[in-house]
User: What shape does this take?
Amino acid sequence: MATHVITGAGSGIGAAVARRLHARGDDLVLHARSAGRAKELAAEFPGARTLVGDLADPDRLSWAFSHQSLPEQVDSLLHIAGVVELGRVGELTPKTWRHQLDVNLIAPAELTRHFLPQLRASRGHVIFVNSGAGLNAHAEWSAYAASKHGLKALADSLRHEEHAAGVRVTSVYPGRTASPMQAKVHRQEGKDYDPGRWIDPESVATTVVMALDLPRDAEVNDLTVRPGRP
Ligand SMILES: NC(=O)c1ccc[n+]([C@@H]2O[C@H](COP(=O)([O-])OP(=O)(O)OC[C@H]3O[C@@H](n4cnc5c(N)ncnc54)[C@H](OP(=O)(O)O)[C@@H]3O)[C@@H](O)[C@H]2O)c1
Assistant: This one.
């Protein structure tokens, strides 16, 4: 049975992915920002293990993990957690920049570093849920887009480094997806939020699971997912 380490399993896209993998009986190790959040995830996904560490403080992840038992087997590491804060370059403070870079870029690098030995041993798979903003940066999206452009670089370098070890690396670039994050973006943009206009998190989950389940002779490197016209 495959073991998946998942960040962001408590909401939106991550929750949809976790539900799919849980329903088919895979082993889940769900990352949570706090012990309280981990308890909620364990109740929601019976049988799942949890791993606690605040992605907003990547310097302390190593210390936090040293006090918990890490899974011995990891077949996939799914980086799905993320944060967004819109704002013009003239207004964004270093604190806002750092928070997005920490959660969206540096924490995934640190988590990857931690689990690479297990991923190499299992010839495993690392999936990064990126964003359309990881490919194009628009007005008021600078800090988030920079973190996601950085995440693309992390994924591309990792793929070159670990391909020979049999580790597969996939970046998924969703467009606007109906989740609490998208509701917040609409509030910041001063627009009404209609979830029906945007991608269902279940559809992004389908692309993630498809990449995971692809036979080993092939690897999806990059997958762009845009809102359709239902
Ligand atoms: N929604 C979109 O339109 C969209 C489009 C393109 C890409 N994406 C990307 O897709 C991914 C998932 O987004 P979503 O829309 O599903 O967002 P979401 O519903 O807001 O979920 C974000 C998840 O990240 C976790 N998280 C945030 N800060 C954390 C921290 N400091 N430590 C640990 N976990 C933390 C949250 O944990 P809690 O559950 O504890 O709050 C939550 O589970 C993100 O990487 C996002 O950038 C989203």
The radius of gyration is 17 Å. The mean pLDDT is 97.
